[in-house]
């Protein structure tokens, strides 16, 4: 996929001003550290509390950064992308593809927690009920 097939409605331009702690987010990915299956792009892994990105509110964990100050990030190593961020200056313009759910293959700690779906809870309830019925029948026949 490599970012070539995405809807323009999911692409946003975000301008951030570098603060004392930088832009206020961490990145993962690159051609040498693929974070999303079949995608060499650069992704936001963490938004730092009270950083520029958090105060702006539009950049989210899991978003793909397509470009920084007009420089495309596709097919770059992680180190090369980090260097572009470091040398970007005080006012930084990001072109961002908003995240698509369930595509990451990175560390589970960097992904949002998911609640079990109702279907999973329903299956567990049915299995527990079946176990209770079997136990009841067994106890009735043997005691």
Concise description?
With 143 residues, the protein is an alpha+beta fold. It contains three helices and six strands; from the N terminus they run βββαββαβα.
Task: Outline the structure in words.
This protein has helices at 52-56, 78-86, 118-142; strands at 11-17, 25-29, 42-47, 64-68, 71-72, 91-97. A hairpin with a 2-residue loop joins strand 4 and strand 5 (71-72). It has two domains: 8-103, Pdz3 Domain (Roll); 115-143. The protein starts with 10 loop residues before the first strand and ends with a helix. The chain is built from three helices and six strands. Strands 1, 2, 3, 4, 5 and 6 form a six-stranded antiparallel beta sheet that branches. By secondary structure, the chain is of the alpha+beta class. The chain is 27% helix and 22% strand. Mean pLDDT is 82; it is low at 108-116.
Average pLDDT, all residues? 82
Measured by DSSP, the beta-strand proportion falls in 15-25%
Could you tell me the radius of gyration in angstroms? 22 Å
The CATH superfamily of the largest domain is identified as PDZ domain
- Give the number of domains: 2
CATH topology call of the largest domain: Pdz3 Domain
Number of helices: 3
Highlighted features:
about 140 residues, alpha+beta, Pdz3 Domain, 2 domains, six-stranded antiparallel beta sheet, elongated
């Amino acid at each position: 996929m490599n970012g070539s097939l995405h809807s323009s409605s999911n692409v946003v331009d975000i301008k951030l001003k570098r603060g004392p702690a930088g832009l206020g987010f961490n990145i993962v990915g690159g051609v040498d550290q693929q974070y999303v299956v079949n995608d060499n792009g650069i992704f936001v892994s963490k938004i730092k509390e009270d950083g520029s990105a958090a105060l702006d509110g539009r950049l989210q964990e899991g978003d793909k950064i397509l470009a920084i100050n007009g420089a495309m990030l596709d097919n770059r190593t992680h180190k090369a992308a980090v260097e572009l961020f470091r040398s970007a200056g005080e006012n930084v313009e990001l072109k961002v593809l908003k995240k698509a759910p369930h595509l990451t293959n990175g560390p589970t700690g960097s992904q949002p927690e998911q609640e079990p779906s109702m279907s999973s809870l329903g299956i567990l309830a049915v299995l527990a009920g079946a176990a209770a019925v079997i136990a009841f029948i067994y106890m009735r026949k043997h005691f």
